[in-house]
């Protein structure tokens, strides 16, 4: 019996994400919360003939939505418009995430918390600091969802490899199987997104397309924001990505073995987090690395990936660190004071 709550369930991501969760047999209760329309979305989904019981909760019912939840997904907040960076969303989304996480600390402090709201590089530190201040922080419970970067990396790598080989061996690059070839570490914005090619010879295969590949993974979000022309950012691909991550958490809660999956976590709280920091030659408290899950929580990260980086990938890590430091600091200060905002 697993209760999953979606906070921001009526939004562009929230609705398709809730649909996918309604289809998952590992979910027994699906609680949909939003400041608008959640009752309607829940009623709609409740007609689907799967066993998860789906209920909607109005603005003043967050306590009921969260009480007893084992997993909480947070796609609440405003999305970007063309010309904005994810950091531009901080002003509005920081307060939204802090408020929601405060309610989680109050009503379901043990829940695994999956944060989708941008800027993820800062909203995850906001969540952690909020819970710490409440005395309710359990390391490994708070996970920043960076899976969309992985999904994009798989898609774009296959596209470039197929183009490189002029379609002659395109079957070799089945997009659904690219997870063995590429993953993504770092953060979730522009230069902090670091695609890591697992099979290093593929970097030479990509040749001059390598830089273009990296750029598309780092700025894939901007492509969608531009194409939607003021109507928001990625929602459908994000719903799939959020679901892909949530599915691993659910399987892990059900004692199924799961492969390591990247997530943006608080490193000092994880078994080998300090070792990972040393390998990164930084004191960064947050970084996305493939994470091992136990009971739906991060227990350790795969720091060995940092031993195998190519010279190009090492440079990407170096470039990411400064921006991540600033983003993390901004999130921490928002909760602990000294924020200039
Ligand atoms: N982590 C990632 O890879 C990605 C993150 N995002 C982020 O996800 C967030 C949501 O994006 P969309 O679904 O497109 O936006 P949206 O505007 O379509 O939906 C957001 C929903 O959040 C609700 N909401 C606002 N304040 C709330 C509160 N205090 N409590 C509960 N619900 C609240 C709104 O009513 C709305 O239904 C944005 O911050 C966006 O930048 C988007 C794509 C990828
Ligand atoms: O680009 C955005 O603002 C939404 C997002 O995080 C993504 O699509 O990766």
From TrEMBL:
It holds the Pfam family Ldh_1_C. GO terms for cellular component: mitochondrion. It is an enzyme of class 1 (oxidoreductase). Substrate binds at residues 80, 86, 118, 152. InterPro entries: L-lactate/malate_DH (IPR001557), Lactate/malate_DH_C (IPR022383), Lactate/malate_DH_N (IPR001236), Lactate_DH/Glyco_Ohase_4_C (IPR015955), Malate_DH_AS (IPR001252), Malate_DH_type1 (IPR010097), NAD(P)-bd_dom_sf (IPR036291). The keyword Oxidoreductase applies. Its EC number is 1.1.1.37. Residues 2-144 form the Lactate/malate dehydrogenase N-terminal domain. Keywords: NAD, Oxidoreductase, Tricarboxylic acid cycle. Residues 146-335 form the Lactate/malate dehydrogenase C-terminal domain. One of its GO terms (molecular function) is L-malate dehydrogenase (NAD+) activity. The active site is at 188 (proton acceptor). It catalyses: (S)-malate + NAD(+) = oxaloacetate + NADH + H(+). One of its GO terms (biological process) is malate metabolic process. NAD(+) binds at residues 8-14, 34, 93, 116-118, 238. Homodimer. PANTHER family: MALATE AND LACTATE DEHYDROGENASE, MALATE DEHYDROGENASE, PEROXISOMAL. Belongs to the LDH/MDH superfamily. MDH type 1 family. This is Malate dehydrogenase.
């Amino acid at each position: 019996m697993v209760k999953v709550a979606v906070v921001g369930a009526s939004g562009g991501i929230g609705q398709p994400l809730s649909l996918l969760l309604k289809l998952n047999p590992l979910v027994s209760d699906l609680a949909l919360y939003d400041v608008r329309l959640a009752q309607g979305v829940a009623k709609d989904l409740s007609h689907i003939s799967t066993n998860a019981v789906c209920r909607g909760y109005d603005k003043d019912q967050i306590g009921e939505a969260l009480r007893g939840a084992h997993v909480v997904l947070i796609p609440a907040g405003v999305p970007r418009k063309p010309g904005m960076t994810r950091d531009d969303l901080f002003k509005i989304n920081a307060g939204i995430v802090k408020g929601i996480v405060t309610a989680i600390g109050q009503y379901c402090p043990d829940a695994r918390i999956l944060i989708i709201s941008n800027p993820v590089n800062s909203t995850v530190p906001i969540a952690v600091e909020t819970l710490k201040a409440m005395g309710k922080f359990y390391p490994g419970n708070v996970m920043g969802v960076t899976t969309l970067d992985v999904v994009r990396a798989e898609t774009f790598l296959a596209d470039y490899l197929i183009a490189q080989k002029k379609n002659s061996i395109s079957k070799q690059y089945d997009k659904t199987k690219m997870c063995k070839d590429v993953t993504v570490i770092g953060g979730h914005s522009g230069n902090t997104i670091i695609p890591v090619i697992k099979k290093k010879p593929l970097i030479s295969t990509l040749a001059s397309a390598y830089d273009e590949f990296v750029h598309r993974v780092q700025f894939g979000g901007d492509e969608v924001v531009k194409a939607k022309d003021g109507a928001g950012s990625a929602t459908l691909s994000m719903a799939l990505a959020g679901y892909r991550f949530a599915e691993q958490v659910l399987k892990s809660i059900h004692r199924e073995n799961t492969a390591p999956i990247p997530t943006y976590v608080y490193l000092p709280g994880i078994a080998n987090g300090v070792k990972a920091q040393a390998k990164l030659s930084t004191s960064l408290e947050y970084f996305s690395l493939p994470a091992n899950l136990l009971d739906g929580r991060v227990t350790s990260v795969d720091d060995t990936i940092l031993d195998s980086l190519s010279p190009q990938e090492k440079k990407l890590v170096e470039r990411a660190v400064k921006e991540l430091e600033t983003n993390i600091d901004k999130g921490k200060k928002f909760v602990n004071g000294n924020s200039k905002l």
